[in-house]
Design goal:
By secondary structure, the protein is of the alpha+beta class. The protein has one domain: Jelly Rolls. Strands 1, 2, 3, 5, 6, 7, 11, 13, 14 and 15 form a ten-stranded mixed β-sheet that branches. A three-stranded antiparallel β-sheet has the order 4-16-17, with no helix packed on it.
């Protein structure tokens, strides 16, 4: 099963596919002029200026970007995702799943990942290594309901040129156990049991979307996925925008830990306005 949704696929049908198959490939949902501008800014920021990647870095406004500098937050990508088709699907999905259509986007849920095309070589900055099979619910509270909107910023297509994304399309509603005896601390915190992954692939197969600029891969917190590292020729830059159902338990957790987030009201984004470019990025509230 390869749930590919063209622009005129009804939102309700897409939300059903997310629930039934764990994820969907939304084609052409970010306007070309917008995604080309975002791609150019990402190349400038990460490849030419070599500024820090990781959480929230995609928010930093490129024209004034420099290490240690305070810059205005650029919400272009968040707007494109959350006010576009992915956000509409999220509202439908959350309404069915937990009774609220509202959602938030935490600044720590905005990951920018750079993956080198050279085997065994990672970018010197955080978020530079290919990832094993994992579930996003392993790094957020498993009882939260959320969707990850994964989109490409460079190169213009994967997996043809850069590292892609591989998912297991199945109806899964639980957090799987971790792989034992993993020595790398980061991988140990997320890597899913190889035996469970092998069983799921035997039953459902796996799926590597042929994604291009402007596409979004949308999947929920229990969907097993990994980096698809097969003969890439270029550095890959991708961004994850996590939309979390706006439930009181979520708001309480972020308030308790003083973690900033964006919310959406009357066509406007409410949240932080500036950030300091550092290791890691510091959101100013």
């Amino acid at each position: 099963m390869q749930p590919i949704c063209i622009p005129d696929t009804p939102v309700g049908e897409i939300a059903t596919n997310v629930a039934d198959w764990g994820g969907v490939h939304l084609k052409d949902v970010i306007a070309l002029r917008d995604v080309v501008a975002l791609s150019a800014a990402a190349v400038d920021y990460y490849m030419w200026r070599r500024l820090p990647a990781g959480n929230s870095s995609i928010l930093c406004n490129v024209p004034n970007a420099a290490l240690g500098k305070i810059v205005d937050i650029n919400l272009s990508l968040v707007e494109a995702i959350c006010f576009g088709r992915p956000g509409a699907v999220a509202r439908e999905y959350f309404g069915r799943t937990c009774g609220t259509e509202d959602f938030i986007v935490p600044t720590k849920g905005l990951n920018t990942r750079l993956i080198s095309p050279e085997p065994g070589v990672t970018d010197s900055r955080p978020h530079g290594q290919a990832l094993p099979f994992h579930q996003d619910a392993s790094v957020f509270p498993a009882q939260w309901t959320f969707l990850n909107a994964w989109t490409l910023l460079y190169p213009d297509r994967v997996p043809d040129y850069g590292t892609g994304l591989e998912l297991i399309p199945c109806k899964l509603e639980e957090l799987l156990e971790k792989q034992p005896n993993v020595t790398d601390p980061f991988r140990a915190s997320i890597e899913t049991s190889h035996a469970r992954i092998a069983d799921l692939i035997a039953r459902y197969g796996s799926w590597v979307p042929n994604a291009v600029l402007g596409d979004v891969i949308l999947f929920h917190q229990f969907t097993p996925h990994r980096s698809y590292f097969v003969n890439p020729t270029k550095l890959r830059i991708s961004v994850e925008v996590r939309m979390i159902a706006k439930e009181q338990k979520v708001l309480d957790e972020y308030a308790r830990n003083r973690i900033p987030y964006f919310s959406f009201q009357d066509g406007k984004i409410i949240g932080p306005k500036q950030a300091r470019i550092d290791h890691p990025i510091e959101i100013i509230v």
